[in-house]
Amino acid sequence: MLSNDKGSLKLLLVVQLTLNFRSGIIAPILALFIRGHGLSASQIGILGIAGMLGWFLFEPLSGVVADRVKKKYMIIFAIFTSTALYAFYPFAQSIWHFAILSFLMSSVMSAYAVSVKAIAAELIPPSDRGKTYGRYLSVISWGGIIAPFIGGYISDAFGYSVPFFLSAGVGIVGLVAAFFLKHDEGRSYKGGSWNLGSATKGLITAPFMGILTVRMVSMVNMVFRQNFLPIYLHESPQIDASETQIGIYMTLLRITAALSQPYIGQLNDRIGSKKVIMSSVALLGLTYAGLTVIDGVVPLYLLGAAQGIVLAAADMSMMIHLMNIMPEGRTGMVMGLYSESENAGGLIVSPTLGYIYEGFGASSCVLTVAAVLLATAAGSVLLVRNEPLTSGGLIETSASERRDG
Question: What is the pTM (predicted TM-score) of this model?
Answer without folding.
Answer: 0.72
